[in-house]
Design a protein that fits this description.
five-stranded mixed sheet, extended, Nucleotidyltransferase, domain 5, alpha/beta, 55% helix
Amino acid sequence: MIRDLAILFIHLVVTVARLFGPGGARSVVAESLLVKHQLLILNRCHARAPVLQPADRIIAGLCAILMRPTRVLRSAIVLRPSTILSFHRALVKRKYRLLFTPKNRGKPGPTGPSPELVSAIVETKRRNPNFGYQRIADQIALAFNIEIDKDVVRRALAKHYRPEPGSNGPSWLSFLGHSKDSLWSVDLFRCESLILKSHWVMVVMDQYTRRVTGFAVHAGAVDGPIVCRMFNSIIGSSLGPQYLSLDNDPLFRFHQWNANLRILEVMEVKTVPFVPLSHPFVERLIGTVRREYLDQVPFWGALDLERKLGLFKDYYNHERAHRGLAGTPPTRKAVSRTERSLAWMITAGKSNAGDYTSCPLPLE
């Protein structure tokens, strides 16, 4: 009781001192009005996130103008985590807008092909699925007398053309991923910390079981030696894969990276250039990590991000149901695969008098 009276007396002395300062009465009245209005907003509805009316925003804005900046944050009691995350995303967008927007406002670049030409390109590809970019460009130049570059055709098809469902079979990575038990995928993506520092994350996954092998984090720019160090830290002392699928990123063309794969005796499988659909599993995993975790959980630095990605890895491998595996987590898929392989080897060993070396593993 005595402690509470002492705290109240201290607050009273501080308030009286603020009242006698320049603009003190105005600041105290505005702060009291802002706190009372926030309490009214919280008591207005029992929903998790109260809906603010225009009058509420006007009152909060006027009170914030009349108050001192140091007292505004102390008076904010209706502050949700989504507000902080939205503010962080806005800062990230502002950062990259300032970094990559040209300083000199010159003339705009070319507008690209006309809608009629894009329609002709897409229709030509739809009627002739086996035509390549150069063949389509030559055909349009012959039919319409319009000179067009094959790169323009490629960009137009990448943006506007979608193959019909069922017209094409699975990609080579999908086919190999279901046939080989030692095909992994690797890719890099970038995320921003709360202090707007860029962090690169390498993710490695097993194609067959959809199991996340590991994450590696690096703060700042990356090059060939750093990419090798990140990949080796994920593999560790365990046995690496026989095949590794990766895209055509320039980081995977450094001589250090190629030498590292030769030392590990890993054969790389390159995807189709400019076609993200040819690298589907790891691209979908990166989208899942962003959508289900990183967009909801902020981080401060590299160590904090590594710890949080480790928690997500355990959740993804052991507890998260996977639609591509009929609701089975990746770890259970790997265990069932091992059990079936051992059972097949035992059955084959009985018929071959224990000679396991000549018995290949069954393909899925």
